Amino acid sequence: MRIIQPRQQLIEIWQAFAKASQQDEKWVWGGRDQPNSVSDAEQLLCLMRPATEIPMFKLDKPNETADDVLEALKNLGDSVALPRRLIRVLTEYMETYTDETGTPIFSAGPYLTSTTPGQEPTATQLSRLSVVDSFAISVTLSLATIGFVRVFREVVRRPNLRQEIDTLERLAKKRLSAAMLGLLRSFTVNVFPVDSEPGLVLCRTVNQVGLPRRQVVDDLQNALREINARLRENVTIGSGTGLAESLENPNKLFECGWSWGIVENAPRVDVPKEVGDQPEGVAESAPYLYFTAVALDGIRALFSRRTRLLGLLDEQQQRWAQALQLRWELTQSYWSTIATFGTGIWPLEDIPWRTTDNVESDYFTLLVTSIVVQHLVTQRRPDAELARVGGVLEELANRSRITRRPFDEDPALNLHHPGVSFNLLGSEKVGGPQLRWTVTDFSPVLLRRVLHLAGLLRDVSLRDHMLTLAGRIWEHLLQRRISEGDGRNLWDNPHGVFRSLPSGDLRPSWYYTRRVIDCLITAADLVRAQPVRNERLEHQASDLLAEAEHLFAQERLNSLFHSKGIEDTLKNIEDRLSRARQIMHERPGTAAVIAQDVLRDLDSFAAARQDSTGL
Asked: Residue 133: which domain range?
């Protein structure tokens, strides 16, 4: 099993990224997928996310860029040319995905495929249908861009370059505003009768102990009472409004989250004219688990520490961010409540998860687990509950054949190739066939959630168990790297680990590579955090320090004249004891080792004195 080493592995990926993204001194858009607003943003985030979220990878202060980073990215330029190149590529992206009226475009191009054999998606569907994936990734990219130029501007003196920076910041702010509005108008609350198919499926999902349906409905409505009230009273911008009457009906249940795009009949938001047009919505007014998880991940960046410290949002964007944060909190609370409902087996543990449209998949279980883990980040839940979530993740690793050997024609491999597809209801309303969205990111999403969970655990053995699982998933991902061609050392080639799957395209998938990089950023955050506090180790360190300090005091009291060398040694011992006392609560293991070294030195004094006196 290989240990995840975020710095070294990110350096390797950046080196491969630089070679694939710039050829003959020209930036190369696209890879396995034709250029579109989602794939191109994912390509840029392979560079921008580590550069703006991990201090040792920063590129916005040329004099402080690390040597190994510059070596990895030398194909893009030196410490001075690199950020300038980045400014121009980011500007090209922002301008490419803005239409003739100045409105940002959030289409997905070839990520959308037809559900009807022989009928291809129309040009309008590919270029004009806005998708939540693009909204969410644009939030992340725009914030990273604005933060990058804010810092880089401080060291720029050339007027023409400062003008380029100002243009890029203006474009990024406009795209950020449009993406936030898209997310507001894509949020939905699906209300349905208890005795409808969605109602029956939801009751069956949460009823793990065979209770009468009426009791299950009453208990569920009681558990969701606060979420229900806040949806009725506080959701007043974008879609999801006008819910009061339907949510108050005791014969109805609901689910909330994000549809695949702007919901049909979603009201326009009153915004300044310069933000751009707000297209009509056509998406089904029901949440999709995949797009809900993607939206939650993107929205979190709006109220991150970096966003607050750098003041990346203007006054209007802060109001929209508050509205999105409300939906973020309510959605996470809703799905976490459903997933952990009851006093026996959790619905989350009843794999695979079944959606209210009666479709089940291990991938849906992973998505719900992702939401639950994000919700647990905001709470201090006991390790016993976290361990149950860890058990689900471990079971998913087994069922997906990441940690188990597949058998012939194993259907579990479909999670990896061709992936899990879901129909985008309403996509046919602009003319053309109904479209579908396909995802193949099971492995990196699983790894990221395992790492997230490991960071929450306080029990050393449980944490170590999760990190061991993370190491095994990482080994799996390493075997999926492309080994030759333009995509060498990037992703994804599932044939590398599952020989029964086709060898596939040797060009890089920015969709998949970006998700692997997200895992490494999460691993870096885990490494940078303080070590887990172990109470047993702290007690041991305290006892060792007490004995060491007492023996040191005796040495000071009982010893006769000391030479200067011995006095220097005693002063060193005193400093080490002081250091051990300072770090004992955060790093008890280190404090214990220091105390042991001091005790060894003090014992050498006692032994020497005993030899000289014969006592």
From this structure: 6-190+255-271+282-308+316-528
